[in-house]
Amino acid sequence: MNATIDPCNCPPWSAWVLDHLQLGLLVLDAGNHIVFANQWLLTHANLAHDAVIGKPLLEVFPQIKGSAFERALAQTIASGYPSLLSQTLHPAPLPIFLPTSQRGKDKLLRQSIRIIPSGRQASALMDQQYTLIQINDVTQPFMRERLLKAQAGRLKGLAEVDVLTALGNRRRLDEVLPQAMHAARKSAQPLSVVMFDVDYFKQFNDLYGHLAGDNCLRQVAQILRDVFRRPQDLVARYGGEEMVAVLPETHGAAALGLTEQVLRRVYALGITHQGSTVADRVTISAGVAVYEPGAELSPENLLKAADQALYRAKSGGRNRVCGPG
Amino acid sequence: MPHSLLIVDDSKVSRMMIKHKVSQLQPDWVVLEAGTGDEAVAMVRDHAPDFVTMDVNMPGINGFEAAAQIRQLLATCKIAMLTANIQESSRAKASDLNVTFIQKPVTESAIRQAVDYFMATA
Amino acid sequence: MNLSELELDALTEVFNVGVGQAAHALSQLANTTVMLSVPQVDVISKLNVSTELINQGADRVCAVRQQFSGVLNTEAVLMFPVQQSLQLVQMMVGDEVPLEQLGEMEQEALAEIGNILLNSVVSGVADVFKLQFEGSLPYVELGPVRDVLCAQGDLTDQVLSLQIDFAIETLQIHGFLLFLLDVESVESLKLTVERFLAAMS
Fold this sequence. Notes:
The structure holds 3 protein chains of 3 kinds.
Chain A: H1 14-20, E1 24-28, E2 34-37, H2 39-44, H3 57-60, H4 68-79, E3 83-85, E4 111-117, H5 119-125, E5 131-137, H6 139-158, H7 170-187, E6 191-198, H8 201-208, H9 210-227, E7 234-237, E8 242-247, H10 252-269, E9 284-291, H11 299-315, E10 321-322
Helix pairs in contact in A: 8-9, 9-10
Chain B: E1 4-8, H1 12-25, E2 30-34, H2 37-47, E3 51-55, H3 63-73, E4 78-83, H4 88-97, E5 100-103, H5 108-119
Parallel strand pairs in B: 1-2, 1-3, 3-4, 4-5
Chain C: H1 5-30, E1 34-36, E2 40-45, H2 46-55, E3 60-70, E4 74-81, H3 82-93, H4 104-129, E5 133-135, E6 139-144, H5 145-149, E7 158-168, E8 171-181, H6 183-200
Helix pairs in contact in C: 1-4
């Protein structure tokens, strides 16, 4: 091993460098007394040079007694191998703060610590064995990472929302439906899926314009959200004017009942629709399909069954719901 | 007359290490070895050792079964069970069988602990 | 690497000393009982390690590496499947902070866990064989199994492999601890084990 600096012949800048390093350094001798503490450390630990040099480490930092830091230090000295104390498992082992001039209140810095023993070769070049403790302030990277993770979480959420209706989008449905079917199997409870379609929506758009069409969809979506409001329910936009409700722990009859409520409330909106041959206002049709745990059914086929029930509702006159079978 | 020790462990190296460390502490002891629980029972029948170190985890009959059989043959023999995992349920077995537990791995202090147990009011 | 069954047996016992100490240290870190199995020691090729990990469903792994040098030189590599690495860190960190990704913070926690295990195992070996080593700080790497294994050398290289089962409360994971040795170090190791066995017989 070649020391990059000859220990017997220190260059004139070494002391200056150590005191301007932007991280904390402590050097302990073979008896665990502090023989060096750099300026960064003294400043951030609010300690005077004379209060520290020559003193036992535990006297200067009594709070480390019984801590993981004390154990890691003992282990390093016993084995001769370096140790790492991660900020994740030990956020702030030493009492090190933002310099008080910058903050009214003492704020502990988040620390990543390395304990490095001098090893046989290096010790032989010096007068004894020393232990270096390097303290990195990782408060900033920690905050950055926390922010990034929160943003990533929000982005994921955004990517699964339909912008117009604020319902879940197709991606969300594709993610949730298999999970809901799996949960249904585990809990041995039926899962109902209802597919909704606004009657004569194309004609509505042609007559009243797309803005009115968008508004209509938003109002329908709101009703769906209001009726299917348990935390485990999912309502998603499936296509242009189609929406799907995924209802765990719900059997067919209950789903039918709730869907009829939706139909009535949409009717009660009273959105004028002169292009409809069913009524003078906007109405919707719906189809219900039920997944019984134990049945051999894929998510695609479950949706298809709901779609087929919807088709029956349409061909049966619209403004109605058709159930399974 | 020097004491005799039977070392029971399916690992040959483990037996070597125990024998080596015991011999450093008690050079005059006679040391016997067995690689399985069944072998151990047979050796107890033939040689009636004073002390036994017994690995708990062995193929065939495990250390507890072997210790139980040895107890039937020789109530006076002192048995130290060597195990990597000292659990509560084993403590119950320990008091039933009148044995002690030594934590593996087999370090010098572990062997010293075993020897002290054997020599206590011996 | 040509180690006899007796020599592998000896290495198992010697490594187990360090594994026992690591279990104790990790239990203190986790504040709950951490159980480590007696390591299964083999000399196998990197390809075998890779196949074994891929068969267990781990196409991506998290590895903690440390260099040890002395009378023999080795790079010690502790590997877990990525998903299990995350579970391990979660177990140590506690439930208050849910983890979804192996970000820098989580990797540093793994570095610490790996550092404790690797230092204990090598320390145990050093004590029993009366050898001296200098060790490096841990370095964490994430990636496909083959990339991590073949940063140097190739899949045909032989390694000294320890397989260790970790049990922490409800979590059970399987780790690979590999020792990569150059030709001289393999010779050194074999001599050391032979000397050790000879001293006892």
